[in-house]
């Protein structure tokens, strides 16, 4: 994905439905680091009601897992886009944007379903037989998977929102959606905090004999990436 936000980019007044089955709970820093969208942009969209956080709108705002995907959708659709073979990608229609956000309401119950926006600006969602349009028509699509790793023009790189590494998982209904080592309740940021306190990987491994060195290394690698996202977007 190349290009940047254009000066004349339009906005979509959108408030995430309060009655949706929202799971996961991320503060602004975590939502920014995981989605890849700069924190200042997330706060701006919340203030202008473009994307109001689903979990909490109080002083400590909290975004749901579905909001992370919505942030990527809005970021991508609002950008000045460049096709892989050169030239500009047509702006996505308001109708398609509304459809994309409406379909996000299904994400919390269909987390295996990926969303795409192709180079013509059309929206797709994975179906039983492959990519399908908003109207559920099968289609061939060279597209951008918004669940998969996500890069921005600011240089941030959001990880896969379900499997950020091969040994790591994000499950919205588990640990408030915090990234963790697969088949455990051990959060990656807990391991990263230990490393920041000066513990070597070997020492961390002795504290948690039920995880492997590879899993610890992947957890630390993810947290380094998330920390870098925040530094780049500062």
Overall description:
This protein is an alpha+beta fold and 234 residues long. The chain has helices spanning 28-35, 39-47, 65-78, 94-103, 188-196, 201-207, 213-232; strands at residues 3-5, 79-81, 115-118, 123-127, 130-133, 143-145, 150-151, 157-158, 168-169, 180-181. The strands form four sheets. It has a four-stranded antiparallel beta sheet with strand order 5-4-3-6, covered by helices on one side. Strands 1-2 form a two-stranded antiparallel ribbon. A hairpin with a 5-residue loop joins strand 7 (150-151) and strand 8 (157-158). Helix 1 packs across helix 3 (65-78), helix 1 (28-35) crosses helix 7 and helix 5 packs across helix 7 (213-232). The longest helix has 20 residues, at 213-232. The chain is globular.
SSE diagram, text form:
Elements: E1 3-5, H1 28-35, H2 39-47, H3 65-78, E2 79-81, H4 94-103, E3 115-118, E4 123-127, E5 130-133, E6 143-145, E7 150-151, E8 157-158, E9 168-169, E10 180-181, H5 188-196, H6 201-207, H7 213-232
Antiparallel strand pairs: 1-2, 3-4, 3-6, 4-5, 7-8, 9-10
Helix pairs in contact: 1-3, 1-7, 5-7
